[in-house]
Design a protein that fits this description.
Low-confidence stretches: none
Strand content: 5-15%
Strand order of the largest sheet: 2-1-3-4
Mean pLDDT: 95
Bound molecules: 1,3-dihydroxyacetonephosphate, iron/sulfur cluster
Number of helices: 15
Length: about 325
């Protein structure tokens, strides 16, 4: 009984906070963007929920003066690079990305020199300083299209070795990889997928390209987060094994009430940084218009070229 009373009061305070956030959003002329790995209550209140590419496109096109980014630091930084005149807020300033921290601008400059200046394709999961050293950015959704758009035959791909490897299997180019990885994805094993598949043999396996090569090679589909949402909706299949962060289950189950989704290793499929944004932090951030994310102008001017080139290539029909 006590438990039920606690749950009721928690639901009530969540609803009150959500009302307050809606009110503040209007007062501050703000737009709330949220990644698909965010907590359900954050996805619920956002104006737009999507993958990294969709979020960058929304940030570039937003006409609101304030962008509140419910995601991790590199995402808010990209919004600030693309919209320098706007106030960009990250409700939890310590929400980083462990993969983005695996490459820095000095190391990248040294490696580029070693390789004789071949073009650098940089996954958006990277700092502004690394984007500034790169020729073009990509996300998991457009990585193959971006690499194919370059005239050169060899490219250096940073920082994700798994995404870089997977792109290499989809293109005729030589893709030289960096040694970065995302632990949330890299720790999903083929054996774990096989075990769940044995229990649900009709299920299709869809995995994110940040997974290990043996996992992407075994999957029916290798997709970005928004690609998984589209595929699950359009496919006649009714069961799916999901190889990405568990936050995506909220939209997958909401969009597909008659279908079943299984996580092969739920405890590992969790990005602690993505879960740092909460309703109280979001309300505080909107009220105070803090903490802000800004990028020094000298870095921004070079980084914006890589992001804008990506958006331009991505907007082409393929
Ligand atoms: P998406 O580009 O598919 O949204 O992935 C972003 C990410 O951080 C995956 O870990
Ligand atoms: Fe970074 Fe991995 Fe979290 Fe995505 S899931 S934000 S790549 S740490």
């Amino acid at each position: 009984m006590v438990m039920l009373a606690d749950q009721r009061s928690e639901t009530k305070s969540k609803a009150q906070l959500a009302d307050r956030i809606r009110e503040l959003k209007q007062q501050q002329h703000a737009i709330i963007l949220a990644h698909l790995y965010q907590r359900p209550e954050i996805q619920e209140i956002a104006d737009y929920v999507g993958d990294s590419l969709g979020l960058s496109q929304q940030a570039a096109a937003a006409d609101a003066g304030v962008i509140v980014f419910c995601g991790v630091h590199f995402m808010a930084e990209s919004a600030s690079i693309l919209s320098p005149g706007k106030i960009v807020i990250l409700p939890e300033p310590n929400a980083g990305c462990t993969m983005a921290d695996m490459v820095d601008a000095d190391e990248l400059r040294a490696r580029k020199q070693e390789l004789g200046g071949i073009p650098v394709v940089c996954y958006v999961n990277s700092s502004a300083a690394v984007k500034a050293e790169s020729d073009i950015c990509c996300t998991s959704r457009n990585a193959v299209q971006i690499v194919d758009s370059l005239p050169e035959q060899r490219v250096l791909f940073v920082p994700d070795r798994n995404l870089g490897h997977w792109v290499g299997t989809q293109t005729s180019k030589e893709v030289i990889t960096w040694d970065g990885f995302c632990n949330t994805h890299d720790s999903i094993t083929q054996a774990e997928i096989d075990r769940v598949h044995a229990l649900h043999p009709a299920a299709l396996v869809m995995v994110h390209p940040e997974c290990r090569p043996e996992v992407t090679a075994r999957a029916d589909r290798v997709l970005s987060t928004s690609g998984m949402l589209r595929f699950a909706k359009e496919s006649p299949a009714t069961e799916f094994i999901v190889g990405t962060e568990q936050g995506i289950m909220y939209q997958l189950t909401k969009d597909n009430p008659g279908k079943q989704f299984y996580l092969p290793s739920p405890a590992k499929q969790y990005c602690a940084n993505m879960k740092k944004v909460t309703l109280p932090k979001l309300a505080w951030a909107l009220e105070h218009l803090q903490p802000r994310v800004t990028v020094p102008d000298e870095i921004r001017r070079r980084a914006v070229r890589s992001l804008e080139r990506m958006l331009e290539v991505s907007s082409r029909r393929i």
